[in-house]
Queue: 2 jobs
Job 1
Amino acid sequence: MAFHQKMSACSAMLIMMMMMLSIETSAARSYDSQQKVPCWCVAVATADDTQLQAGIDYACAHTDCRDIQAGGLCLDPDNVQWHASFAYNSYIVVKRTPSDCYFNGTAGITTKNPSRGSCHFLNFLCTPAH
């Protein structure tokens, strides 16, 4: 095989490898754009107190809600909306099922940390909506 034929074969192989690398890099970039961020499951502001209380009862039957009971770090503000947010988020974090952040339409996912003072809401990872 002549020298220039060997160089052509090497060039073709190099070009093919560069194209494959380019495709792989592009796929990695696409994956990175779907990077997960910290999220929390909270009660929606328009939810009815009766529905929220039902959600609290359900969530607290499956996770530890002592922090929203008397003497708990997350009792204040002492209202159903706040307690539902804490209970819903605790349930989702323990069960590891962000897709369940619905609670009959009374909950939604946020990327804004709802923690206040000594009351710390644990987060989970999710892909933010665009």
Note: The helical segments are 3-32, 49-60, 80-95.
Job 2
Amino acid sequence: MKRISLRRNDIIRYFCDLVILLLFENAEAAGGLRPLGLAVFSALVFSRRNVILLAPMYLAACLLKDFSYVGLVVAVTPAVLFIAAYFVYHKLNRPMHRTTALIVTLLSCVPRVAFSMVNGEIYAPILSSVITLVAAYVLMTALNAVAVRGLRYRLTVDERISLIVAVGMLSLSLFTIKIRNFNLLYPFFAFCLMLSAYAFQGVQGALVTGLSVALGASLQGGSSGVFAVIMITAGVAAAFKNLPEAACAFALTVAFTFSLFFLDTFSGYGYVNAISIFVGAFSYVLVPRKYKTMLSSSGISYTAVGKSVVNKNRRETSIRLYSLAGVFEDMKNLLSAESGGKTEVSPEAVAYDVASNFCGRCENANNCFRSLGGDTGVILNGVVETSMKKGKATIIDMPPFITSRCKKLNGLIGAVNDRLIKIECAGEQAEEADKNRALLAAEMGGVAEVLDNLGDEFKRPLSFDGRRERRISDELTRRGVDCKEVLVCGEQADVDVTLVVKKEDADKKAIVEEVSRIMKVRLKKTHESDATDGYAGIVLSPAPRYDFVYGSAGKSRRGNDVSGDVILVRRMSKNRVLFAVGDGMGSGKNANDLSERAVKTIENFFEAGFSEDVVMEVSNKILTRHATGDGFSAVDIMVLNLNTGAVNFIKLGATFTVIKSGDEPEIIEGNALPMGVVENVQPFVTRRVLSENDVAVLLSDGVTDVTTGGEIAEILDEERRINPEVLSSKILDAAVKNGASDDATVLTVKIFSRI
């Protein structure tokens, strides 16, 4: 056999085994039966404990209870039999089978039955042996689930029943231990009640645990009063399970104490036992939350597998997203590296090309070459250099040598100009290709950023709260809401609660009220969809700190039915809102199309999750590529974060914006060119933080050309209770009164607190 090596955890584990052996061996039911010591010993051996270490512990526990010749034989027999079985299975390199362990347990009962029969007892030892065998099977199942396999996996039905019965056996053992008026059962019972009510199956768990403990204690004490007191306390725990843990712990302490006094069950019940109940209940309250969550969402929970699969899939998705982000980033770098601008062509190369392909084919080429001592490229070099600066070659640029000798002067000039045109076209094509590559590189970089952010989001595992799910279900049922399923996903500001309720209950205010109270976060309904069999699926998410109202007013230029200005208000996520005013150059339908194109492009990129810098860069490049003539547009953008009140103002050719924060109006002016003018325009960006009742006014130049920021600020000051629709109309009326003739648009946004 291999050498036995014990670590600190092993020492603690075997010490606990010794305590369990002492408790169970000392347990004596009414009638003098003591069947549990051998049962727990065989269960511990079956649960892969080292029998060489367990056997001396079992002998010590037995002899402390019955130090006699009979006691020694009864104790030694199972120790020897299990050691022998252990050696056999060790040689076979296999774990001991349950059937073998039960057979050895049955054989271990023979000495006790034989000694009892010699003394004239027949039925009691046989009954004790049967109970020992059944108890061994139950404890083997329970210990295998808890100590060998662990609670990471879902418990089967027989394992749950075995654990409940095992709790009853332990209760019987603990009720035997009495130190004056103190009983070990009380703190154990209080802790188990809290555990079953909050971590496991709620009402059912608390009542079943109470029944198990009550039966165990009653079998030892033989008192119906004990049974009644424990069941009353279990009922109180089940009733108070939806309250905070500390309140439930206090309630069951009071219930246990008062029921004992009123039923007069125990004599001598005093403050020591009251404190022990209190300590047992509150010891569960002090257990770290992560361990409670692990118990609640582990093998006990029927949704554990699905929840585990969700997080597994999220992790795998995040890895793929990161890989895709890397691919797009590489593509961006590759496209950026290939952008080289115009390819410079030297005058010497052009002159040599003309000399070879035009002069070289002339019938007088030899005469010219002989006079120059080489080809005509030497003398054409200056001509080409001058022509490249001017843009074309003329007869004036030709030197006397050529004008006096060349019989194809016009053809020579044409050949030089033809080469210059080809060079210019090639340069334009190269520049166009570079612009396209730059646009694609920017788009690839934006996609890489979006995928990387998505990878970060999916990398974070979702946490589930089984305890709150059950509490929500119970409370909604109490409020008259037929709730079929509940799923709590995430924590605090990132939590989402999904409910499946009857369609006729879906709009009840009690749903949002109760779930918000239980989650301790103000929630709102963000999604509703049809489920099956007359049920609806509802998603509740944290409501942001702020919300907004907006109003607008506008007019078109005289003689046009359509305004060139466009307004956009779009909620991009649960907490971010995009406001935009687009002002296309010109007026009428053409200007409206320009504005629509600019605003729609920006909207699409924002909704795809691109950052603001990437949105403005890529959108401007796209609009510049499609621009013709005056095909550019001024854009005024406001991005509002409803959680923090932070606002980003982004301006490209847009006029000023007026905000009123508190009592002081502020005018924000931008100085960037409109979108579509040049590709590398830098937008004007500034940031402000707004709070409750603050106002922002976005304007087109049809208003600001005739109305100053000071006049608009005065209108804001005059309005005590600001209605955005009314305020927009007043500002537009002031502009018209001042002579506004162009397209004019006002968009007013007011934020307010929801807390």
Note: The domain at 466-542 is CATH 3.30.70 (Alpha-Beta Plaits).
